[in-house]
Amino acid sequence: MGLFATDAVDALYEFDPQTTITDAQPNVIYLRRELTYGARQDVDNSIIDRAHRDKRGMPELRLERRAYAKLQAFIVRWEGPDLDGQPINEQTFRKFNWSDPFFQRVLTAIDERYGEEKEADAAGDGESPNDAPVVSGVSGGSTSSVATRHLSLSANGMGTSYS
Fold it and tell me: Are the beta carbons of 11 and 28 closer than 8 angstroms?
């Protein structure tokens, strides 16, 4: 990824309207191909909740915020029967059925664009700059000292899981 991203976007269709015989229109989500350096920093810094402090006076970390920030940073626009008129924000994201195969493809495309999988493969040792210590209390946590972040969703919302 270069320092400056282009405005190029890709359309992800729920189904191919050319090959699928139906009267229904597909949902379509348009994703940026890459983010600017500043947008990537905004996504990574989104977990810091400066409004709330822990016992030591440090800002609290809200891991689920990063997943929402990635969605909001990459999704340029959307259209279709389930998406028209919906704002692109966290409240709307919480309404979706993230186990749906279409939304799973969207999440995979975002992770690929963000470079989460590529960086792990490039390091060769299974660890990447995106590796993070396991945080207790996170759904799907692991007992290992280092775990790779993945965008994941549960039935009641979105969160970061570790594997």
Answer: yes
- Distances from the Cα of 105 to the Cα of 48, 123, 149, angstroms: 28, 25, 17
pTM for the model: 0.64
Tokens linked to 121: 């493969």
Cβ-contact 146, 162 below 8 angstroms? no
Identity of residue 25:
Q
Could you tell me whether strands 28-32 and 147-154 are parallel, antiparallel, or unpaired per DSSP bridges? Answer: unpaired
What average pLDDT does the segment 119-133 reach?
40
Q: How confident is the model at residue 2 (pLDDT cuts 50, 70, 90)?
A: very low
- Judged by DSSP in three states, 53 sits in strand
Please give the structure tokens belonging to residue 114: 């963000």
Contact 88, 75 (CB under 8 A): yes
- Alpha-carbon torsion, ordered 93, 97, 101, 107, to 10 deg: 20
Contact by Cβ (8 Å): 131, 146: yes
